[in-house]
Design brief:
The complex is a heterodimer. By secondary structure, chain A is mainly β. Chain A is built from no helices and eleven strands. In chain A, a hairpin with a 4-residue loop joins strand 7 and strand 8. Chain A is globular, with a radius of gyration of 14 Å. Chain B has one helix and eleven strands. In chain B, strands 2, 4, 5, 6, 9, 10 and 11 form a seven-stranded mixed β-sheet that branches. A four-stranded antiparallel β-sheet of chain B has the order 1-3-8-7, with no helix packed on it. By secondary structure, chain B is mostly beta strands. The chains are: A mainly beta, B mainly beta. Chains A and B meet through strand 4, strand 5 and strand 9 of A and strand 4, strand 5, strand 9 and helix 1 of B.
Chain lengths: 112, 116
């Protein structure tokens, strides 16, 4: 079983739709949870960061962490064509090196 | 402020050749990382470094070597290239405290390597 599972998509939605992206994980020791966005032929960029369980909102983006279910989500409201990218979940145990474990990424296309 | 710079952006190698992927950052970050990204496989950690003179293996180190003689530079060496090393390679850096507080790695734009 992979440490982090993510549906690769692709996911295609019309402009203005609400998008839900999800990851599950197997190791309950993960403490930090992140979402990175990666545009085509570019490096990933941090989008959202959450410590432990709970919700975090930033504009049109909401990140949710449910540690009891080992499940994290990213919601995008009023999706825009500029949101078309690959979204990677990532998580870490914390500690001195803070190595990140990435999901495989979900390719999202928002159609105008 | 250029961030993380990787060279070359593209390279084709023949089986058995060697090469070095260069990575430099101008943010004075202590932590640097090399990842490879294959379709459907996500990002896999090859090597990382917590400071000049210190390196350690990640998840997939075989066939690669690194060195960290300065804070700014973290080159990745491929010896005896194999088709299995065809991938996109990303270098990243972080400030240790920043990573703990924000989870942020700063990535370069990637180096696309094909081994034929």
């Amino acid at each position: 079983q992979k440490e982090v599972e993510q549906d690769p998509g692709p996911l295609s939605v019309p402009e203005g739709a609400i998008v839900s992206l999800n990851c599950t994980y197997s190791n309950s020791a993960f403490q930090y949870f992140m979402w990175y966005r990666q545009y085509s032929r570019k490096g990933p960029e941090l989008l959202m960061y959450t410590y432990s369980s709970g919700n975090k909102e930033d504009g049109r983006f909401t990140a949710q962490v449910d540690k009891s279910s080992k499940y994290i989500s990213l919601f995008i409201r009023d999706s825009q064509p500029s949101d078309s990218a690959t979204y990677l979940c990532a998580m870490s145990y914390g500690g001195a090196t803070n190595k990140l474990i990435f999901g495989t990424g979900t390719l999202l296309a928002v159609q105008p | 402020n250029a961030g993380v710079t990787q060279t070359p952006k593209f390279r084709i190698l023949k089986i058995g050749q060697s090469m070095t992927l260069q990575c430099t950052q101008d943010m004075n970050h202590n932590y640097m990382y090399w990842y490879r990204q294959d379709p459907g496989m996500g990002l896999k950690l090859i090597y990382y470094s917590v400071g000049a003179g210190i390196t350690d293996k990640g998840e997939v180190p075989n066939g690669y070597n690194v060195s960290r003689s300065t804070t700014e530079d973290f080159p990745l060496r491929l010896e005896l290239a194999a088709p299995s090393q065809t991938s996109v390679y990303f270098c990243a850096s972080s400030d240790a405290n920043g990573l703990a507080e924000t989870g942020e790695l700063f990535f370069g734009e990637g180096s696309r390597l094909t081994v034929l």
